[in-house]
Known about the structure:
The chain is mainly α. It is 63% helix and 5% strand. Strands 1-2 form a two-stranded antiparallel ribbon.
Amino acid sequence: MQHRHLDTNEWTLAAIDSALEYGDLADWRELFTRARSDRELARRILRICHGHYIEGSTPMARGLVLKLWPELAGEA
């Protein structure tokens, strides 16, 4: 994934934030495909959603995480 000044293969907090705000469908697919099997990544997505509200993206990202990991609802 490459956004703004980021060029990384890791889903850091900055990379997640950038994908949610500026990413296209391919970026979202990559992020949530990985989140499907990585609970810690799902938690990081929720952390970004809590700290940075992006109209449209934040509710959708939160909903996708909770669809994949319903047990994280208490952390949302």
